[in-house]
Amino acid sequence: VTVKSSNQDAATAAGEEGDDPPKEEPWETTLKTTVVDMDVGEFRGHKVSLWDLLHSHYIPEENRKELLELYEAGELTLEQVKTVVSTIVTRAAAA
């Protein structure tokens, strides 16, 4: 399931307190809205968000945490995360 948010203006909510749930970080929203065509495993023939792939059983928790930290810190680009995640999922599904 891919959740898409129509709220593009998260910055205006910064510092305001209300009944709204906490706003997603921009990098998290990007991972949830960036989709990849997968040709392996349970995702074969589907467009899957990078967020869902990162949280699938194909990606070990240690790898997921490291990738998220590196991406959030700006040390990995979105394209690099996409490549690494696709490669890990493809190799894990083929194993």
UniProtKB/TrEMBL annotation:
Residues 1-28 are annotated as: Disordered. This is EPIPL protein. It comes from Oriolus oriolus. The gene is Eppk1_1.
